[in-house]
């Protein structure tokens, strides 16, 4: 009896220890933190690996004082997984995607038919997580990764992690991951991806701060990378771009959005030479009603918003005058509605598809998926009659109720 118990215990121990046969120590692995994809000749893809140096930026940095924070290598291969194997012929450690959170794709490659095949086949590797962020670069991805040398972040993965949090705060770019890309591959909707660049494009100064694309922001010094606006995908291929302002509108018109507020400036209705800065907050879900019984669908959208006035450079006393408050509220509301109507018209004429996820609402009007597919929502959306109603209320005017006195009045009172 005792021998049987001992044999059973030994068998259990053997089973527990058997799981360590494929273990690898940390120093035996090379963790890829950023992946780049570019077009290559003969139908190949150029894959760039940015491999992090775990010693730089850690408590063990004394042993790596003269080592760079990462190593960047590029290979041409049929797909990502074969490039990963080729990389092991140069990099002595085993390549791992366990910490990969960012994929940079060049605009030229994202616009090609090959892109969807390459990115679709990559998820067969269990290390390729669907939460990985997608960034579309104006230039080649290898150039984007090489030139991105942030001054305040030593470790490259931390830079992208912190920037992602800021993107969600501002709403200048969408929340784009591999999973969302695969969800929106159909003809019914457009997929919006983060758009960035390290190159500058000469452009005129915009009166409002969000009317730029990446590379157009007037910047002096600082990090070379600019992130602004979205790359637009239709049926798995990039077909255009939209600005930071248009990206904010697209996110707000969705029934639910991850960006709940943003700060923007609007014309001062009582003094057109100045702008009024406000934080616009989404006050609940966007309400969408559709009538699909006609050939030209009727779509009624209600967008509930509240505004916090942050800055009034004209010194107009809006806080204590209800009539002026109403003029300001109506001015912001009308300005925003005009931008929304123009953007919707642009989407209908240019893409014949929508990035607002309204197809999820349209789908509920059909009993079967086959009936919905036969309806062809994309074709009907392009000719739909869309009316957007904004319901905005001004919530506050900041901590200081009264505006500061103009400079000449202050001088008179001081005298």
Number of strands: 14
The helix-strand sequence is HEEEHEEHHEHHHEEEHEEEEHHHHEH
Count helical runs.
13
Subunit arrangement of the protein: single chain
Mean pLDDT: 81
Estimate what percentage of residues fall within beta strands. 25-35%
Distance between the termini: 106 Å
Protein name: Ger(X)C family germination protein
GO biological process, one term: spore germination
Subcellular location: Membrane
InterPro entries: GerAC_N, Spore_GerAC-like, Spore_GerAC-like_C, Spore_GerAC_C_sf
Task: Supply the key terms.
GMP Synthetase, Chain A, domain 3; 415 residues; disordered C terminus; 13 helices; 31% helix; Spore_GerAC-like_C; alpha/beta; globular
């Amino acid at each position: 009896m005792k021998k049987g118990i001992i044999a059973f215990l030994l068998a259990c121990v053997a089973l527990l220890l058997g799981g360590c046969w494929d273990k690898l120590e940390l120093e035996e692995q090379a963790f890829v933190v950023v992946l780049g994809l570019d077009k290559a000749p003969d139908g190949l893809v150029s894959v760039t690996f940015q491999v992090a140096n775990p010693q730089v930026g850690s408590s063990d940095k004394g042993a790596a004082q003269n080592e760079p924070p990462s190593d960047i290598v590029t290979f041409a291969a049929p797909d990502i997984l074969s490039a990963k194997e080729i990389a092991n012929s140069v990099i002595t450690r085993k390549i791992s995607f366990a910490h990969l959170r960012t994929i940079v794709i060049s605009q030229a490659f994202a616009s090609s038919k090959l892109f969807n095949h390459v990115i679709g086949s990559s998820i067969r590797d269990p290390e390729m997580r669907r939460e990985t962020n997608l960034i579309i670069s104006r230039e080649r991805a290898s150039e984007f990764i090489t030139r991105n040398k942030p001054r305040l972040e030593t470790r490259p993965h931390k830079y992208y992690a912190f920037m992602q949090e800021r993107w969600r705060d501002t709403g200048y770019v969408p929340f784009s991951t591999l999973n969302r890309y695969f969800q929106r591959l159909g003809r019914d909707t457009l997929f919006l991806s983060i758009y960035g660049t390290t190159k500058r494009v000469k452009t005129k100064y915009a009166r409002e701060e969000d009317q730029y694309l990446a590379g157009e922001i007037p910047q002096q010094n600082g990090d070379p990378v600019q992130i602004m606006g979205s790359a637009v995908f239709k049926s798995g291929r990039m077909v255009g771009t939209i600005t930071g302002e248009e990206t904010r509108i697209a996110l707000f018109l969705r029934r639910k959005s991850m960006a709940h507020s943003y700060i923007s400036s609007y014309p001062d209705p009582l003094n057109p030479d100045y702008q009024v800065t406000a934080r616009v907050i989404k006050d609940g879900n966007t309400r969408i009603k559709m009538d699909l019984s006609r050939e030209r669908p009727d779509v009624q959208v209600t967008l509930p918003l509240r505004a916090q006035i942050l800055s009034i450079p004209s010194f107009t006393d809006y806080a204590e005058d209800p009539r002026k408050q109403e003029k300001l509220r109506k001015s912001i509301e009308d300005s925003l509605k005009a931008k929304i109507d123009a953007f919707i018209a642009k989407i209908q004429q240019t893409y014949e598809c929508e990035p607002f996820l309204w197809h999820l609402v349209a789908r509920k009007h059909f009993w079967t998926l086959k009936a919905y597919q036969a309806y062809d929502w994309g074709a009907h959306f392009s000719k739909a009659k869309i009316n957007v109603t904004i319901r905005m209320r001004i919530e506050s005017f900041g901590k200081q109720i009264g505006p500061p006195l103009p400079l000449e009045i202050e001088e008179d009172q001081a005298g």
